[in-house]
């Protein structure tokens, strides 16, 4: 019996995340379609962004692999490309002819029976008249979606693969009545073994491996042209092994071998398949495509040729907002969801917004997560693990964190990732690198490649909130640091004493208790670790704690704690070898902007009394972790001269 999680993995990303809330702005906005499966459902919508020029780029390369996280339009773009290039036939299997102007080498824009041609009327690609003349409707196509290729064992994989093959054959039902299927040829009998659902359900493993290759041969003979192959969600079978861990090692090996044989026969040196487009997550699909090593990889946000066709750039976001009559929302989008930004290999700086996130914002007014729930839950369970948390905390602090990139995984890598995500077991440091690579490819991080190293950072507040919610939870912190109730109470009491006494001795006592709490079991690796520990315990013990903005993603007050009438404002920084003046910088920030500005930026006026700007009882605490594992606290009362206390962390 299929598990609910397995079933969920097979659904499209956007079916799983389809929001139920509707916008109160306009009827037009409520009708925004965030399901990115079919081009013919989108091409004439008011919030469609024209990406048709991608088709020209795809046809510059014979075999292309596109890798991007959920919600960036991979499936929509594949469906768009397929509808452009596929030979369209009538019920009798006869190709629908389009009027052409041979002298001008272009298609005539007249009334046509072609449904596909009508989908591209008014689109950018039709301006490329000679390209359209050469490629529109010129390829027989095979389209398969591997999102349904999941199972508890290898036998279930075979059952589902037979269904995929049968679906591919039935899309070309006209072949059954073609003249080349004459009785006694053997060709029709073999065709019917795949075309008939009952016969297909009993195919041997050998026949399953040969099915799509046979279909390509038949189409090549029928049209006299090689096939354009479209494979969506190629990574799902291996992804399911990692996130679900339902199979035995032997079944995993058999499944991967099956996929390697099928893709190798189809995509490497096959005279009947001229072109292919494949969508997948890179680390999983490279295992499947080991035999098909002729495919050009386009990794997420790294390929100058393709990045602009997946997701939205700033101009496209503004265009959509203007269509909705909400252009003034752009600054809010920049503040709450600042996209993915990186520098390409050619030095070009880019900023890309997740397509689904933007359309969902227009539809609901919310920035919802866009990962399948099954994947999101596993990720959140894993990032707080003892061996993984410090590296994630470093990334949260915007520190450079280089991990070794795995270009060619094997079954042991798959099993290691499965142990991490399903059993929360981390055996080797390299396993942590694999996991961080998964975070990059699923869109939880944005990255820069330098040869074999991967440098990552948090891309936006949507991701930040997901990771922060996990790392900053009491359960995660207690599990990681093993703090005693006594230590937590001492920290709480030291803040209360600071509010009551307001003396230098009280600040020293606070420093002592922070050292005892944060340095007792593990040495802190970043400012984020200090921030998350303090915020979690202060939020638990005190009613008024604002932890809206953290780390250098946003230059604001990190934490505001209200004890009685005292406002304690904590700014957490991390001092490295290259930045020894963060304390001075933090204090200068306070001096330059003042308490009122900080209060306004942190939205504290909504939490505190109306006389917040006139409150005189306030303490600024600037906490820093130094390179020699010391905590320094710089403090000032009501803008008086600052004082500093240093306490060494215990190893």
TrEMBL record:
SUPFAM superfamilies documented for this protein: P-loop containing nucleoside triphosphate hydrolases (SSF52540)
Residue numbers spanned by region Disordered: 1-29
Residue stretches of biased makeup (Polar residues): 18-29
Residues in AAA-ATPase-like domain copies: 112-251
Protein name: AAA-ATPase-like domain-containing protein
Source lineage: Eukaryota, Metazoa, Ecdysozoa, Arthropoda, Hexapoda
């Amino acid at each position: 019996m299929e598990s609910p999680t397995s079933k969920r993995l097979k659904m499209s990303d956007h079916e799983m995340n389809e929001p139920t809330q509707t916008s109160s702005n306009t009827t037009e906005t409520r009708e925004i379609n965030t399901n990115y499966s079919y081009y013919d459902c989108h091409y004439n919508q008011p919030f469609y962004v024209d990406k048709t020029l991608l088709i020209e780029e795809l046809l510059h390369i014979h075999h292309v692999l596109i890798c991007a996280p959920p919600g960036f339009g991979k499936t929509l773009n594949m469906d768009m490309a397929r509808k452009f290039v596929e030979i369209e036939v009538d019920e009798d299997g006869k190709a629908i002819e389009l009027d052409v102007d041979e002298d001008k080498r272009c298609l005539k824009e007249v009334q046509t029976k072609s449904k596909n041609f009508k989908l591209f009327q008014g689109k950018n690609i039709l301006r490329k008249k000679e390209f359209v003349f050469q490629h529109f409707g010129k390829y027989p196509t095979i389209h398969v979606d591997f999102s349904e290729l999941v199972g508890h064992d290898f036998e279930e994989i075979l059952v589902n693969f037979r269904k995929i093959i049968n679906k591919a054959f039935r899309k070309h039902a006209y072949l059954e009545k073609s003249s080349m299927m004459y009785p006694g040829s053997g060709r029709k009998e073999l065709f019917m073994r795949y075309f008939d659902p009952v016969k297909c359900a009993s195919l041997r493993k050998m026949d399953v491996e040969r099915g799509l290759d046979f279909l390509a041969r038949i189409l090549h003979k029928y049209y006299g042209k090689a096939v354009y192959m479209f494979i969506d969600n190629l990574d799902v079978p291996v992804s399911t092994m990692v996130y679900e861990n339902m199979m035995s090692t032997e079944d995993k090996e058999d499944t991967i071998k099956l996929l390697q044989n099928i893709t190798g026969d189809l995509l490497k040196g096959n005279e009947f398949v001229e072109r292919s487009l494949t969508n997948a997550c890179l680390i999983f699909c490279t295992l499947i495509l080991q035999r098909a090593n002729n495919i050009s990889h386009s990794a997420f946000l790294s390929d100058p040729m393709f990045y602009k066709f997946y997701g939205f750039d700033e101009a496209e976001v503004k265009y959509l907002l203007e269509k909705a009559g909400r252009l003034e929302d752009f600054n809010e989008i920049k503040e709450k969801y600042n996209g993915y930004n990186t520098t390409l290999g050619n030095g070009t700086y880019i900023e890309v917004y997740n397509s689904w996130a933007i359309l969902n914002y227009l539809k609901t007014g919310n920035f919802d997560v866009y990962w399948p729930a099954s994947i999101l839950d596993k990720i959140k369970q894993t990032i707080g693990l003892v061996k993984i948390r410090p590296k994630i905390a470093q990334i949260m602090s915007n520190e450079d964190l280089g991990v070794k990139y795995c270009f060619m995984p094997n079954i042991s890598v798959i099993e290691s990732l499965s142990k991490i995500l399903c059993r929360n077991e981390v055996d080797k440091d390299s396993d942590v690198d694999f996991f961080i690579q998964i975070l990059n490819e699923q869109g939880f991080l944005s990255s820069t490649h330098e040869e074999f190293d991967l440098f990552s950072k948090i891309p936006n507040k949507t991701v930040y909130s997901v990771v922060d919610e996990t790392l900053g939870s009491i359960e995660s912190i207690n599990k990681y640091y093993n703090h005693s109730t006594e230590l937590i109470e001492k920290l709480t009491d030291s803040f209360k004493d600071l509010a009551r006494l307001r003396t230098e001795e009280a600040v020293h006592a606070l420093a002592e208790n922070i050292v005892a709490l944060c340095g007792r079991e593990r040495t802190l690796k970043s400012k984020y670790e200090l921030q998350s520990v303090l915020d979690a315990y202060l939020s638990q013990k005190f009613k008024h704690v604002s932890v809206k903005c953290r780390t250098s993603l946003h230059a604001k007050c990190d934490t505001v704690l209200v004890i009685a009438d005292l406002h304690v404002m904590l700014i957490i920084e991390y001092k490295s070898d290259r930045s020894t003046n963060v304390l001075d910088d933090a204090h200068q920030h306070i001096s330059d902007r003042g308490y009122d500005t900080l209060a306004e930026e942190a939205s504290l006026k909504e939490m505190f009394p109306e006389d917040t700007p006139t409150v005189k009882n306030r303490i600024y605490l600037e906490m820093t972790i130094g390179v020699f594992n010391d905590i320094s606290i710089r403090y000032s009362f009501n803008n008086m001269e600052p004082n500093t206390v240093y306490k060494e962390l215990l190893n």
